[in-house]
């Protein structure tokens, strides 16, 4: 893929992500992690053959457009998260 193709793909991915509901963005990120990165880590994907796919997945996951957008605040008390074993003061 050349630089022009990559730029066009980036514009397309950005447009799609901006139109997705937050829960779809989250499920897309989970699917990329499980299928692509998990497959690469487990050896199910040959990195020589699927290197571009793994790179695309990493670029998508690092994108600011992939970050979940929320309408509400956090659903847990920010100073104490005992269910995670974290206590901050």
* Biggest beta sheet summary: 2 strands, antiparallel
- Low-confidence segments: 76-81
Tell me the strand order in the biggest sheet: 1-2
Distance between the termini: 49 Å
Number of domains: 1
The portion of residues forming beta strands comes to under 5%
- What global shape is seen? flat
Helix coverage percent: 55-70%
Question: Which class best fits the helix and strand makeup?
Answer: mainly alpha
Rg of Cα set:
17 Å
* Helix segment tally: 3
Determine the mean pLDDT: 78
Number-wise, the strands total 2
Q: What's the SSE pattern?
A: HHHEE
Descriptive account of the structure:
The protein has 89 residues and is mainly α. It has one domain. Helices cover 61% and strands 4% of the residues. It has helices spanning 3-19, 22-42, 47-62, and strands at 80-81, 86-87. Strands 1-2 form a two-stranded antiparallel sheet. Helix 2 (22-42) runs antiparallel to helix 3 (47-62). The chain is flat and about 35 Å long. The protein starts with a helix and ends with a strand. Mean pLDDT is 78; it is low at 76-81.
Task: Give the SSE layout.
Layout: H1 3-19, H2 22-42, H3 47-62, E1 80-81, E2 86-87
Helix pairs in contact: 2-3
Features of the shown structure:
mainly alpha; flat; two-stranded antiparallel ribbon; 4% strand; 89 residues
């Amino acid at each position: 893929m050349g630089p022009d193709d990559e730029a066009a793909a980036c514009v397309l991915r950005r447009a799609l992500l901006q139109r997705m509901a937050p829960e779809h963005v989250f499920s897309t990120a989970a699917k990329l992690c499980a299928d692509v990165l998990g497959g690469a880590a487990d050896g199910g994907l040959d990195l020589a053959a699927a290197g571009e796919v793994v790179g695309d997945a990493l670029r998508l996951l690092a994108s600011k457009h992939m970050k979940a957008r929320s309408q509400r605040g956090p659903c847990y008390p920010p100073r104490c998260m005992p269910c995670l074993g974290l206590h901050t003061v």
